[in-house]
Fold this protein.
Amino acid sequence: MKFIHLSDLHIGKRVNEFSMLEDQEYILKSIQKIVEEEKPDAVLIAGDVYDKSVPSAEAVTLFDSFLASLSKMKTEVFVISGNHDSAERIAFASEILDAEGIHMSPIYDGNIRPVTVKDKFGEILVYMLPFVKPVHVRATLPEEERESIITYDDAVRAAIAKMNIDESKRNVLITHQFVTGAETCESEDRSVGGTDEIDVKTFEAFDYVALGHIHRPQKCGRETVRYCGTPLKYSFPECNDKKSVTIVEMAEKGNVEIRTIPLIPKRDWVELRGTYDELMTKSYYEGTNWRTDYVHVTLTDEDDIPEAMNRLRTVYSNIMKLDYDNKRTRENKIISGADNVESKSPAELFSELFEQQYNQPMSEEQRKFAEELINTIWG
């Protein structure tokens, strides 16, 4: 049995006021081509289909088109809701879609009924556990058992316990949680103090665990408990990440092979650093895709560049973020009151304030301008 593992599509996401829909449409078409070439038996989508619980019409239309393309290829699809999704919206029409091989996770009610798929080695039971919080699981338990569900790990353990797993069979779990020790990045949501962490041992009964929620592809504890990561980058700390889809080939019990296929985005994410003049020199960016990539620029000029963002955008059309790294920004001095105020001229006091604010003395040009302005004000 061959699966393609996806998660965290975040369809409809905006980053720094840039819509990602065009990039998402491009990458979903790339994934469709991989499905056509690999001919998997099923595609597993482990939550965060959308970026918001009430997605835009454009986001819904894009995902609908993606599901339709998979259905036309006679590929079974398993979709669960993540913490960004509305569980009710993901569950809509799930019973009707089941007949077409599109399995949408129902709202969690304490009863997870596996979907059975078959290959030459026998049955594989696919369990779909959407993102759940302790409160969701407590609501499904008898009153005397509710007090024992405090942490997310308690909740997931209780949910799995009710599945009555037959460990002699091949079992696959699709879920959307944070497993302890997973490497995170800026574009993810985490609970304060790590209260949402799940121990990887919680998943021991499963032959493969298709995880969603973490944006970097990685294994957790063992090779067969995996985050596939997002198909696109959504923050600058992910600049050097390699995005991919995860291919899982399951033979007889205990025999699972995993590989990845790289995904190439329409636009990459890059961080550029240098002076304004360096970054605007044609030889600096010529031969790169930086003019259309999503760009974070750090200028090292000591003086701020007027209208820097707009001027940089004439070359780097998708610049998202601009920072400075210079003497002024490296030190955050506390600006204190001046000493001997009565004995100092206004120009001297302004010069001291400037130096404390910008961590460097005024240039001769700045000093002359300030003196002329002060003389005009004081007459």
